[in-house]
Design brief:
The complex is a heterodimer of chains A (157) and B (686). In chain A, 5% of the residues lie in helices and 45% in strands. Chain A has two helices and eleven strands. Chain A has helices at residues 66-69, 142-145; strands at 11-19, 22-27, 31-36, 50-56, 59-65, 82-87, 92-97, 99-107, 111-112, 126-132, 135-140. In chain A, the strands form two sheets. Chain A has a six-stranded mixed beta sheet with strand order 8-1-2-11-10-9, with no helix packed on it. Chain A has a five-stranded mixed beta sheet with strand order 3-6-7-5-4. Chain A is globular. With 686 residues, chain B is α+β, with helices and mostly antiparallel strands. Chain B is 46% helix and 22% strand. Chain B has a six-stranded mixed beta sheet. In chain B, strands 6-8-9-11-10 form a five-stranded mixed beta sheet. Classes of the chains: A mainly beta (157), B alpha+beta (686). The A-B interface holds A 39, 41-46, 50, 52-55, 57-62, 90-93, 146, 148-155, 157 and B 321-322, 324-325, 567, 611-614, 652-664, 667, 669, 673-677, 683. Chain A: Residues 11-151 form the CheW-like domain. Chain A: One of its GO terms (biological process) is signal transduction. Chain A: Its main location: cytoplasm. Chain A: This is Chemotaxis protein CheW. Chain A: It is found in: Cytoplasm.
Chain lengths: 157, 686
């Protein structure tokens, strides 16, 4: 589900969102919905980037703050903030982003390996960089970003 | 195999149901051997199973069921009587069928070598007694190991068939190997075969043919075939009769004697052995012709079965989720209506509330299934165990119709098996001991299920030896579970409950049945993990009563909602003993652990705010709200800000992303749409 084949055009649809001043993209295939900010219930004893869980139409869905996941400065959620619900084979997770800009088609051959200096986020989360017109989109490697959280702390109790 | 994958689930479900029904009716039959109506029920299940498995291409199952059917048919036509030996064989067949079905379920082929069993069934169907083998069930497995490739002459004979022949020789029957050669230009081979078999069947018993009778019927042979016949008739007369059939070229009859039986073994082992199979299906197919009363005994299908449909449990879960959405919206609608004061809106909302309440009951009930589905495997198990242990036990089941949520049903099977094994092994005494104690020879185990409040109780009562205080205490002290000083102060009930402690096993000698090192403590922990509770009452010499208390469902539970710094948490009522408001001055310090004196017990306090990484209030108030929870015998007090109230909630998982979070067992959605986390008390108590 992470990458898809569009045989003819070799184009893929991606959702573009913003964190700080950079634009990121994930394939639309893994995105279920984009939600405005909902009330989040904090889950204790989890890493900081796990904001908590929400009630997404009856399903309890964990929420990950991408800023914190990437070690970027924290920001209060505001009217522009969005939660992108992604579905992997194993689970559903919501990603908190500053802004979800649009859906665009990008050519697969426009995706290049990550250049040396792209930003501050850890390179293992990045699968490549796409150049579309004058925009630079950072493609995310969701498998790495969303490693399941096992018993994280307080084991000693 | 044909493409039947889409039907596989249905096949598996239905096969299991039919096998279960076979087992139940067989047990019933054992109690009332005269009631041939029961045989009809078993026959019906077996027949359906045969049809289904043949359609699905599981020929071994179809074959074995077919043979079993022959026996059942013979019983209901009163050709053979019901005896424990016969039932043992049929039970074993059902066991094998179950194994095969399980194999298919696990992705296997459902194949299994059941040759010996098939032979036994054939023999039974033909009305022979199992005289020479009083302990058939014990003897059979070893035979199975050695027989598969044995062969004899033109017709392959396995040890079992040899035994059959030997036995009939002893009873002054003749055993013949008959070789029939049809004319080369024979047109109606199948018809000739049929006529010949008619003659043979009238004369005696065909125990084997080569090639197999089905191949013979489909003319899948050259011109010659062989038959092994047990008969009282002389060879000459038989040959004369056989030769009268048209298109028969030659009939050669060789007598099988004990010598040839023995001698044949080595020389024929080298020859190619046709797949051993027996000829009795033929006899079965002829049965309707011979016995006029058979057709009317064919069952009238259906009648008492309810009309049901199968629904995947996941669909019910989806339904449940959607319904919860509706409940949340209903709540919003109610609050809007109360603001608007519109008469018509109010009435509509009220109606909707009522309807959705009914809907909720129905949806919850759909997930409930009778505890019978767990209980129904016990009678057979008890029967078998009692035989293994040489004990006499009567199992009574009361309240099998009691309903429990599927989630619980799936989990309680194993603990109950363990308890029953324990009762049979350690509880019920041997018949001799029982008589010496002035009890009836047959012990009684009662399995009882009933609802009470929000719980289901399952009780297992036996009238066996009960818990021997001295022995249990001795062992507990030896194992270091209690100290001698403590031991003296324990009540009988407390002593009895020691056998649930981990590391405890009273069996002096380790037996097959229970006492395999994993003691009743496993039962206890399983039941506790389900939010249940187990207790024991025992009177020495009179028996024991194990009582298991379980929540009605694991998907909807009762909780106490508590507030912690504006956050709401749910604590399962099954863990809560009571709530209390204590004075801060009553909190004592022991080894850096805050404790309180709660009704004479020293109970450690757990600060939930600290556990849940919240900011501590600098100064605590004069009073503190405490929820006293338990894990087994141990208590703890959870300090919270305030109690909100008791509520029924729907248990939700946190999903696979948050795989395990300390002290949180799941989540639920509150009426206002917010998620509240459920506190797992077990991990808070050491």
């Amino acid at each position: 589900m992470t990458t898809q084949e569009i045989v003819d055009s070799k184009e893929m649809k991606v959702i573009v969102f913003q964190l700080m001043d950079k634009e990121y993209a994930i394939s639309i295939d893994v995105v279920t919905t984009i939600e405005k900010v909902l009330s989040i219930t904090r889950v204790p004893n989890t890493p900081d980037y796990v904001k908590g869980v929400i009630n997404l139409r009856g399903v309890v869905t964990p929420i990950v703050d991408l800023r914190q996941r990437f070690g970027l400065p924290e920001k209060e959620m505001d009217d522009n903030s969005r939660i992108i619900i992604v579905t992997t084979e194993e689970f559903d997770v919501g990603l908190v982003v500053d802004m979800a800009n649009d859906v665009i088609d990008i050519r697969e051959d426009s995706i290049e390996p990550q250049p040396e200096v792209v930003g501050t986020i850890e390179s293992e989360f990045i699968s490549g960089v796409a150049k579309v017109e004058r925009r630079l989109l950072v493609m995310l490697n969701l498998e790495k970003v969303l490693q399941p959280i096992k018993r994280v702390s307080n084991d000693e109790r | 195999m044909m493409d039947t994958n889409q039907y596989l689930d249905m096949f598996l479900d239905e096969s299991k149901e039919h096998l279960q029904s076979c087992t139940e009716h067989l047990l019933e039959l054992e109690q009332n051997p005269e009631d041939l109506a029961i045989v009809n029920e078993v026959f019906r299940s077996a027949h359906t199973l045969k049809g289904m498995s043949a359609t699905m291409g599981y020929e071994d199952i179809a074959d074995l069921t077919h043979k079993m059917e022959n026996v059942l048919d013979a019983i209901r036509n009163e050709q053979i009587g019901v005896s424990t030996e016969i039932l043992d064989v049929v039970f074993e067949s059902v066991d094998h069928l179950e194994e095969m079905v399980m194999d298919i379920e696990e992705g296997g082929t459902g194949q299994k070598d059941v040759t010996t069993l098939v032979d036994t069934l054939n023999r039974l169907a033909s009305g022979e007694e199992l005289v020479a083998e009083p302990k058939t069930s014990a003897a059979r497995p070893t035979q199975a190991a050695i027989t598969p490739t044995a062969s004899a002459g033109s017709v392959a004979l396995d040890d079992f068939e040899k035994t059959v022949i030997e036995q009939s020789l002893e009873q002054n029957f003749n055993a013949y190997e008959i070789t029939i050669e049809l004319r080369d230009d024979c047109i109606l081979k199948a018809a000739r075969v049929f006529m010949l078999f008619e003659i043979f069947e009238q004369a005696g018993e065909v125990i084997k043919s080569s090639p197999h009778v089905e191949q013979l019927e489909s003319e899948d042979f050259d011109t010659t075939f062989h038959v092994i016949l047990l008969t009282e008739e002389a060879a000459d007369a038989l040959q004369g009769k056989a030769m009268k059939v048209s298109e028969v070229e030659q009939v050669t009859i060789t007598a099988i004697t004990r010598e040839t039986l023995g001698a044949s073994e080595e020389e024929e082992a080298a020859e190619k052995a046709p797949k051993q199979e027996t000829v009795t299906p033929k006899a079965q197919k002829q049965a309707p012709v011979k016995k006029e009363d058979t057709p009317k005994k064919r069952r009238s299908t259906g009648g008492n079965s309810n009309k049901t449909i199968r629904v995947n449990i996941e669909r019910l879960d989806v339904l449940m989720n959607l319904f919860e959405e509706l409940v949340i919206d209903r709540g919003r609608l109610q609050s809007i209506a109360s603001e608007l004061h519109n008469q018509e809106l109010n009435e509509t909302v009220e109606r909707m509330t009522r309807v959705s309440g009914d809907l909720q009951n129905i949806i919850l009930n759909m997930r409930m299934i009778p505890v019978e589905t767990v209980f129904n495997r016990f009678p057979k198990m008890v029967r078998q165990l009692a035989r293994d242990l040489d004990k006499k036990v009567n199992l009574e089941i009361i309240g099998a119709e009691t309903e429990l949520d599927r989630t619980v049903i799936d989990e309680i099977g194993d603990p109950l098996v363990h308890l029953i094994r324990n009762a049979l092994d350690h509880g019920i005494e041997t018949p001799a001991e029982r008589v010496a104690k002035g009890k009836s020879e047959t012990g009684t185990i009662t399995l009882r299920a009933y609802h009470s409040g929000n719980h289901v109780f399952i009780e297992l009562e036996d009238d066996g030896a009960g818990v021997n205080r001295e022995r249990v205490l001795g062992k507990a002290i030896e194992r270091g579970i209690v100290t001698e000083e403590v031991a003296a102060t324990l009540t009988d009930k407390q002593v009895a409950e020691l056998i649930l402690a981990s590391g405890f096993s009273t069996a002096e000698a380790v037996t097959d049945v229970s006492g395999r090192g994993v003691g009743l403590d496993v039962v206890k922990s399983t039941i506790e993990s389900l939010g249940g509770y187990i207790s024991i009452d025992s009177k020495e010499g009179q028996g024991s009563l194990f009582q298991v208390q379980l929540p009605l469902t694991l998907s909807i539970i009762s909780v106490m909602l508590v507030e912690l710094d504006k956050e709401i948490y749910a604590i399962p009522l099954s863990s809560i003993i009571e709530t209390a408001i204590i004075q801060s001055s009553d909190i004592l310090n022991a080894h850096n652990q805050k404790v309180i004196d709660f009704r004479g017990n020293i109970v450690p306090l757990v600060d939930l705010k600290e556990i849940f990484e919240m900011e501590q209030n600098e100064e605590q108030g004069e009073f503190q709200s405490v929820v006293i929870v338990r894990k087994g015998e141990k208590l703890a007090g959870l300090v919270v800000d305030s109690f909100i109230g008791q509520q029924e909630i729907v248990l939700k998982s946190l999903g696979n992303y948050l795989q395990s979070v300390f002290a949180i067992s799941g989540a639920t959605i509150l009426g206002n749409g917010q998620v509240a986390l459920i506190v797992e008390c077990n991990s808070l108590i050491k």
